[in-house]
Amino acid sequence: MGTIFKIYLPRVHETQVAPKVALSNPGIHLNGNETILLVEDEPALRQATTKFLKGAGYSVLEARDGQDAVEVAEGHSGPIHIAVTDVVMPRMSGVQLAEHLAIIRPETKVLFVSGYAERNVLQRGTAIRRARFLQKPFGLKVLAQKYSKC
Question: Which CATH number fits the domain that encloses residue 100?
Answer without folding.
Answer: 3.40.50.2300
